[in-house]
Amino acid sequence: AENRDTKENRDTRNNGERIGTRARENRDTRNTPHATHLSRITARTRWTTFGFEACSQNKPSISNLAAAFLRHAYGMTTPRHTLVDSAAPCFYHLVSRCVRRSWLCGTDRRSRRNYEHRRQWLVDRLHQLSCAYAIELHAYAVMSNHFHLVVYYDPRAGANWSDGELADRWIAASPPRTKDGQTDDCATALMRAEIMADQHKLERIRCQLGSLSMFMKHLKQPIARRANIEDGCTGHFFEQRFYSGALLNEDAVLAAMAYVDLNPIRAQIAESIKSSRYTSAAERIDQASVHPELLEAYLAPLASGLTESAGIVLPLSLSNYLSHLDQLKGSASGSSRRTVSDKIEKWRQRVAILAKKQRVFGTSELVREWLSARGLQMREVPFG
After folding, report:
1. Which element (helix H / strand E) includes 218?
2. CA–CA separation, 76 vs 312, rounded Å?
3. Fewer Cβ close by (within 10 Å): the C or N end of the chain?
4. Whether the Cβ atoms of residue 196 and residue 164 lie closer than 8 Å to each other
């Protein structure tokens, strides 16, 4: 009898503890920020809490509201399909960093090992893929722990490529090689025949060659693999998610290109545009030294996978562009500001805005239209 009473008392005590625990959990849940946000969903005046402007006529849809709430409450990032238009061509500023911002492409400050040669890996791979994918490469800068790109992306270009062109582009992006690194002609012919015989594979290749995300993935994967083999380790080399900012007009594109080309000077690893290595400006200068007529020609893409470019025309000669960079160099390096023209001052202001890493850049009208089409709040600083 004593044992039975002891067991009953123990069961009663355990039940009481469970009930008390549930009550505390319910009370704590009601006081959490997430519960507070949930209570605001029904309040018509609280739409702005989730990234929407209060508007009685254009009430946000349930799906947009749910997505905005999740991003706000749990720190979720904006989906790539929202940031990159899958139907209309556009310029983009892209940035990808090494994991933990480690100096995996420069001189490691702790081990003093030099990894400068990895920058050339990235430049070579960048040119190789730019001729195969639906993009044009206009500017780049490879730094010690990250890289910048300015590309023109046309998601509709792949629809006009024939099956043979798709196979050739795919093989050009990732050609089969022998053990000594040379292109294997026999394996290439077999690979092309296999691709041409599989219609489903052709359509899959068409989607991948027309995807900006797949371009970035295939750009970084081989670099990470080679670096891990060199270091004798495994794991990520680059951060999984890259930054993308839409450039909606000519001023935004030119400002982004200047921002990218001035990165080595801003980081104080170069003193002039000519001494900047692994940048598009340095590559354009090298090309002009061989072909002087390029100095007076309009800025053209460094590499292109588009047969017929329909991008924004950049009516600025290379000589004028380099002159603008030279005048902007002082503000990029942090030195005293010189007296400059109003035009250069506008360039300087636009380049400064690029450092904010916004989702979109352009005039106020263009930015508002772009954000409105995606149900996003106006937080960006427009040009003018």
Report:
1. helix 212-231
2. 33
3. N
4. yes
The answer to whether residues 69 and 41 touch, using CB atoms and an 8 Å cutoff, is yes
The one-letter code for the residue type at 165 is E
**CA quadruple 67, 68, 72, 75: dihedral sign:** positive
The sign of the CA dihedral 294, 300, 301, 304 is negative
Best-predicted range by mean pLDDT (13-27, 43-57, 123-137):
123-137
Whether 347 and 234 have beta carbons less than 8 Å apart is answered as no
Beta carbons of 205 and 193 less than 8 angstroms apart:
no
Position 321 scores a pLDDT of 95
Cα–Cα distance list, 28 to 22, 35, 36 (Å): 10, 10, 12
Q: What DSSP assignment string belongs to 12-64?
A: HHHHHHHHHHHHHHHHHHHTSHHHHHHHHTT-GGGGGGGT----SSSPPPHHH
Asked if residues 330 and 336 have their Cβ atoms less than 8 Å apart, the reply is yes
Tens of pLDDT, residue by residue over 224-264, are: 999 899 888 888 889 878 999 999 999 999 999 999 999 99
* Average pLDDT over every residue of 268-293: 93
Burial of residue 289, with CB atoms counted within 10 A of its CB: 0-12 exposed, 13-18 middle, 19 or more buried: exposed
pTM: 0.78
Q: Which residues of 218-253 are buried (b: 16+ CB within 10 A; e: fewer)?
A: bbbeebbeebeeeeeeeeebbbeebbbbbbbbebbb
pLDDT at res. 239:
86
Structure tokens that stand for 193 in this block: 């025949």
Q: Residue 7 pLDDT more than 60? A: no
Beta strands in 236-288 (DSSP E): 243-247
Structure tokens at 79: 């989906």
Long-range contacts of 73-81 (CB under 8 A, 24+ apart): 73/33, 73/34, 73/37, 77/241, 78/359, 78/376, 80/213, 80/244
Q: Measured between alpha carbons, how far is 210 from 134 in angstroms, rounded to an integer?
A: 5
DSSP 303: E
Q: Is the pLDDT of residue 295 over 80?
A: yes
C-alpha–C-alpha distance, residues 244 and 358, integer Å: 9
pLDDT computed for residue 104 by the predictor? 79
